[in-house]
Amino acid sequence: MRIPPRFSQRLAIAFLGGATLVTLVILVAIIVFILEKGLLVLGWEFLFSSPKDMGRAGGIFPTLIGTVLLPLLAIIIATPLGVSTSVYLTEYTRESKTTRVIRFGTDCLAGIPSIIFGLFGFIFFVTTLGMGWSIMSGGLTLAFMILPTIIRTTEEAIRAVPKSYREVSFSLGATRWQTTKRVVLPNALPGILTGVMLGIGRSIGETAAVIFTAGSSLRIPESVFDSTRTMAVHFYILAREGISTENAYGTAAVLIIAVLAVNLLAYWLMNRFIARRS
Amino acid sequence: MSDNVTAQYKIEIDGLNLFYGQFQALKSVPMSIQERMITALIGPSGCGKSTLLRCLNRMNDLIHGVRVQGSVHLDGIDIYRPAQDVTDLRKRVGMVFQRPNPFPLTVYQNVVYGLRVAGIRHSRSLDEIAERSLRRAWMWDQVKDKLDEPALELPLDQQQRLCIARLLAVQPEVILMDEPCSALDPIATMKVEELMLELKKDYTIIIVTHNMQQAARVSDFTGYMLLGEMIEFSETQVIFTRPTKKLTEDYITGKYG
Ligand SMILES: Nc1ncnc2c1ncn2[C@@H]1O[C@H](COP(=O)(O)OP(=O)(O)OP(=O)(O)O)[C@@H](O)[C@H]1O
Ligand SMILES: [Mg+2]
């Protein structure tokens, strides 16, 4: 028996709407749950003082520094590498077996669990290159971890730039590089920024890859070759070792707020950028 | 033909074959284009008009798998010779596209795009050339107060004339127009046609059009193409009043297809 279209239409709306509602409720529940517990300890004191007794008391200041430095380093390394690769793959090479293999490779890389990157970083940066547990080792590892994401989002963004823009640019006597620089990249920028933001988000929340490579020192680092601890790692250690549930939730709350702030900032920047251009 | 013979024509095309992979889109096309004249290309859809046009500024180079045989001489010099600087060629032979296609930038930034690409940075010269080009395209009065506004907010016909201004700014010698009016209404079309007649004083213009009245109105020479071949090429008057080929006559009188 066929379901009448009007009925199936209603069914679809109910199902799709329901799914959206469930998603929303779950998301909000998680955030409320963590903020509720975390906000109890949250304050200037918690943010800007050093932890005492392994984190049982005191604040989380050193982990704030770690959480800023590692993703920052990762993004500084991964963005130019990733964007250049995507530009090369989209603007300077024709679709061929080689580009398909490279694309397949990046897709696979994007799907590899982060702990594998952590292991690689440990063996390569920490041990072989002798960088030890350090911000440098961690930043490089994170950079490689988010590279595939940046490459793919940038590629999509570049492909979405209308072909006619390139044609006009060439027809006015521009070289390929001038066209890339003046037309393609500016128009792909919102998409590229999205990739970068996704990368920052992943780096901020990462534990496995970081704990193996940047270590978990609670001291304030003096150079990029010092070990550090990020908020995510701090949370993991506090919770896992049963050191302090309250402080764990406090850290989690800061993490969530930080990620939210990064996303809001990105959103705002993007809107401003789009408004300025069109 | 040797390259140092004094050119009689602005552009001379000889035995031009073009292949998209296996498919031959142009078949031994000859055409001689006179300086400061308007030459129209007409013919049914898919006959190779755009392809021929794009051979003249080597835009077909951008398409993968294109092969070109034969010769195209600009001022007596073969533009397909290996030493040809393609960006230089494209500055000399500019193009206006079917759909108005300003960049998503301001009016001013659009006009000076080609100049900036050519390395001109001096802002007074940029301003000067921008104004001159917009005047030449008959739109200075409409946009002089809107130079910093987004070009995409202009009405379509102004967008198209902005594209013409953007092209004039790089001071080309030849202007290729691929159905430049097909997105415009009749009044805007008329304005662009008048503009072409004015520009003819300084530029060599080649226009592809589906509109036979347009070809008859503006052009001095007309080429009729069919299935990649140049069936007849002659003065416009001749083509439209006493074509020598039966195929041309059928097309002109609407008996085709
Ligand atoms: N990039 C391409 N790859 C393969 N074939 C192409 C390509 N561009 C055009 N062709 C083919 O070449 C032939 C000529 O195309 P062209 O666009 O030059 O025709 P046209 O006369 O301009 O047609 P229209 O009036 O529809 O614009 C057509 O059969 C078309 O299918
Ligand atoms: Mg065409």
Question: Could you walk me through the main structural features you see in this protein, from its secondary elements to its overall organization?
Answer:
The complex is a heterodimer of chains A (278) and B (257). By secondary structure, chain A is an all-alpha fold. Chain A has a single domain, classed as MetI-like fold. Chain A is built from 11 helices and 2 strands. In chain A, helix 4 (97-111) packs across helix 6. Chain A is globular and about 65 Å long. With 257 residues, chain B is an alpha/beta fold. At the A-B interface, helix 7 and helix 8 of A face helix 2, helix 4 and helix 7 of B. Magnesium ion (MG) is lined by residues 49-50, 178, 208 of chain B.
Short note summarizing the structure:
The complex is a heterodimer of chains A (278) and B (257). Chain A has 278 residues and is mainly α.
Topology, pairings included?
The complex is a heterodimer of chains A (278) and B (257).
Chain A lengths: L4 H34 L5 H5 L2 E2 L4 E2 L2 H32 L4 H15 L2 H15 L6 H25 L3 H9 L4 H30 L2 H4 L19 H10 L4 H33 L1
Antiparallel strand pairs in A: 1-2
Helix pairs in contact in A: 1-11, 3-6, 3-8, 4-6, 5-6, 6-8, 7-8, 8-11, 10-11
Chain B lengths: L10 E10 L2 E11 L4 E5 L6 H7 L10 E9 L2 E2 L7 H7 E4 L10 H5 L1 H5 L5 H14 L3 H4 L12 H14 L4 E5 L7 H14 L4 E5 L3 H7 L2 E6 L2 E7 H6 L4 H7 L5
Parallel strand pairs in B: 3-8, 3-9, 6-7, 7-8
Antiparallel strand pairs in B: 1-2, 1-4, 4-5, 9-10
Helix pairs in contact in B: 5-7
